[in-house]
Write a structure and sequence with these properties.
Thrombin, subunit H, QueA-like, 6-stranded antiparallel beta sheet, 17% helix, alpha/beta, globular, 27% strand
Length: 325
């Protein structure tokens, strides 16, 4: 399988990008890709229970998205925080770059931000706030820029899973957006937590995939989840973030605890803990599209995406989903 970024590109018609969620969370289509048989079929998300067998366990990421996008009153400066640090500091993206250099003092979100450092490698800032920003009242949901619009009140609800609990993500674990409380309650499941960080936003900047470095993301596996995972016959992972948690754990029985992961799942990755994956359709040349190609095979996944385009599936965060068996 190729380790060249250019081999993970594809043309996507703009009209296939889902800019809004469907009125019904569970109304999405679901493509089913069978790795062993090499087959592709077209189903509906509501049919997911048909693919869950006795002894299976769904593992989901219960991280909650914070309204992490902060704007000045005139809207001309934006700070997107993504990692809390000691003493009122956050690691963040900011724009425009010329107005957010070290030494800049910015009234924002009911407080004052001081830009202390800029990482020359990726442009991230260290920002110190004089008091905690009022995220709930003044923050904006960090919906992806490819949606081509500003966030609104609908995104406050729909850019969260129905089981979101532990605040800390700056992007939704989007495979979970399809679940309703009723569908989830009918399936055996357990929760882990991984706070989705800036790796979601950053493009792969080198054609050689081996040279790309992922940002670390914090995760936690609780006692109940570890017990359920160890007893399961088959693990159905909901979302690439959940996959990254499970594949970052050491060999042997899963033990409860916290950690961080910066794994980049690319061609040649040796999967250890996944039997099936529910995921959305991802951006071309993204680490997530590379991940599903590593799991299902480059040729099969490219054919699956070609069929999705021909069949007018809805793409990206608010789009349809794929079950890889």
């Amino acid at each position: 399988m190729s380790a060249s970024l250019c081999d993970y590109d594809f043309e996507l018609p703009r009209e296939l990008i889902a800019s809004r969620p469907l009125p019904d969370r569970a109304a999405s289509r679901m493509m089913v890709v069978d790795r062993a048989a090499g087959t592709i079929s077209h189903r509906a998300f509501r049919e997911l229970p048909e693919f869950i067998h006795p002894g299976d366990l769904l593992v989901l990421n219960n991280s909650r998205v914070i309204p992490a996008r902060l704007l000045t009153d005139d809207g001309k400066i934006e700070i997107l925080v993504f990692e809390k640090m000691p003493e009122g500091r956050w690691r963040a993206f900011a724009r425009p770059g010329k107005r957010t250099l070290p030494g800049a003092v910015i009234p924002i979100a009911g407080t004052t931000a001081h830009i202390e450092e800029v990482d020359a490698a990726d442009g991230t800032r260290i920002v110190r706030f004089e008091s905690e920003p009022d995220f709930e009242a003044r923050g904006h949901m960090p919906i992806p820029p490819y949606l081509g619009r500003e966030d609104d009140e609908e995104d406050r609800v729909r850019y969260q899973t129905v089981y979101a609990k532990v605040a800390g993500s700056v992007a939704a674990p989007t495979a979970g957006l399809h679940f309703t409380p009723e569908i989830l309650a009918a399936l055996p499941h357990a929760f882990v937590t991984l706070h989705v960080g800036p790796g979601t936003f950053l493009p792969v900047r080198t054609d050689n995939l081996e040279e790309h470095k992922m940002h670390a993301e914090e995760f936690e596996v609780g006692v109940e989840a570890a017990e359920a995972i160890n007893q399961a016959k088959r693990l159905v992972l909901v979302g690439t973030t959940t996959l990254r948690v499970m594949e970052s754990l050491p060999p042997g029985p899963v033990r409860p605890g916290a950690g961080s992961t910066d794994i980049f799942v690319r061609p040649g990755f040796a999967f250890q803990r996944i039997d099936a994956l529910l995921t959305n359709f991802h951006l071309p040349k993204s680490t997530l599209f590379i991940l599903v190609c590593a799991l299902a095979g480059h040729d099969l996944m490219r054919e699956a995406y070609a069929q999705a385009i021909r069949e007018h599936y809805r793409f990206f965060s608010y789009g349809d989903c794929m079950l890889i068996l």
